[in-house]
Design goal:
By secondary structure, the chain is an all-alpha fold. The chain has helices at about 20-55, 60-95, 110-115, 120-135. The protein has one domain (about 20-135): Up-down Bundle (Four Helix Bundle (Hemerythrin (Met), subunit A)). It contains four helices and no strands.
Length: about 140
């Protein structure tokens, strides 16, 4: 890919769904998000290293431990999100990006704009969530 997009370009319903411009737009959006997550990851890692040397009294150590646990949870969420971004980038490469993995129907520009890692249409996602809820109750 790597085509140059106009600075103000936004995908539109007036153009063919998942044309080269739209795919490049989402590819760049996913890459920027990926870079942001890596920067956050490195910042968290550096903060954790500094925290290992900080605090000597019990209150400081307890506070540092709570911060450490929260940062590890955040790092785990970021790791999972990074994997989803990588999967979305793969779907761009193989031509399946923007289409529901379950039905094959277009996911829709608004959903992709809000959640570019989406692999299911809203209807399919709601069905999965309902099945999960029923499974938890059952």
């Amino acid at each position: 890919m790597g085509m140059k997009l106009p600075a103000n370009y936004r995908p539109s319903r007036d153009e063919p769904f998942m044309n080269k411009r739209q795919l490049e737009y989402f590819r760049l959006k996913l890459l920027a998000w990926h870079t942001e997550l890596l920067e956050d990851y490195n910042e968290t890692r550096n903060h954790l290293k500094k925290g290992e040397r900080a605090g000597s009294d019990f209150a400081d150590m307890a506070s540092a431990e709570t911060d450490h646990a929260q940062e590890l949870r955040t790092r785990d969420r970021e790791r999972k999100l990074t994997a989803k971004i990588d999967q979305a980038l793969e779907r761009i490469e193989n031509g399946t990006f923007g289409y529901c993995a379950e039905t094959g129907n277009p996911i829709g520009l608004a959903r992709l704009e809000a959640r570019p890692v989406a692999s299911l249409s809203i209807e399919a996602q709601e069905r999965h969530e309902e099945e999960e809820i029923r499974g938890l109750r059952g």
